[in-house]
Amino acid sequence: MSFTSTILQWFRENGRDLPWRQTRDPYAIWLSEIILQQTQVKQGWHYWERFMQRWPTVDDLAAASEDEVLREWQGLGYYSRARNLHAAAKQVVVLGGFPNTIEGLRSLKGVGDYTAAAIGSFAFGLPAAVVDGNVYRVLARRFGISTPINTTEGKKEFAALAQELLPSENVQLSLLNDQLSPVAAYNQAMMDFGATHCTPSKPLCMQCPLQDSCIALREGRVAELPAKQKTLKVKERHLIYIYIRCNGETAIRRRPAGDIWQGLYEPLLIDGGQMTIDNWAAQHHCQSSMVNCQLLRKNVKHVLTHRILYADFYLWQPDEKPALPDDYFWIPEADIDNYAVPRLIEILLEMLNA
Length: 354
Description:
Layout: H1 3-14, H2 26-35, H3 41-54, H4 58-63, H5 66-73, H6 80-95, H7 102-106, H8 113-124, H9 133-143, H10 152-164, H11 182-196, H12 215-219, E1 235-244, E2 249-254, E3 265-266, E4 268-270, H13 277-283, E5 294-303, E6 307-316, E7 328-332, H14 343-353
Helix pairs in contact: 1-11, 2-3, 2-8, 8-11, 9-11
């Protein structure tokens, strides 16, 4: 049996039953793909259901405010996905519906080659192969490919191979799941096989339908593949957050563009480097009122993709509102849950409420 037929057979017997696979609605499929870009299915499933319930159509989502979308997204991280999601929804409304070509889908904000192929094949039956981390891993191991997947050469090589392996329209019906086109079934099969069988660690090699033809297994290179070229060193950054509590109110600001967590809200920030609370207090002439500024926790570690953050959390309860930079504003403390905040600030709020 060929590689493609084997994968389809495995999928028919072992494929995951996911709600966005029970429809060809491009909105539901697109929403699931954006949520799952850097999120595990178990967590993303809950968010997908919440979004579908609150905004059942792309028109509903486009009509929402960015703040509403960011608040609903809170906890998923990588917030540029939420901003792109909202922007793309508005694009779709202007277009009068989802594009039904790969080029058209690719033009939507936040939709790359993988997502366009997924939506195109699942919703419209387009002959486009998906290539994500799961697909890289399965192909690299099965075909013994050592080309780093994070290089231009590697991306081209794997994309060409993935496209070559797509099933033809006359594939045996016994290998297909009901109501799925051959390409849609194959793409979902590759994603599921990599996610649940040919996993990054502890793959099920001894129960694998490809074990007789897997080059990595035969050569003892399963743990080495797929290969990656070394990237830049992760940078560290130190932050000091001061939660101000003054007569039932607190001060927050919306983070500006050009930095992490764009568009999310945070309490008073002293951004690392050589700046300390004492230096900040001296600059703003409020040393006396900060005498009782309480340290809640020091060096809280928070890992992002390209940097590691270390944050100190403080609680400051002045008798009068201090003068703050112009981008901060005061809100009732009870309203803080109405504002989307990064996970790091959620941790701070959890300390205050403990």
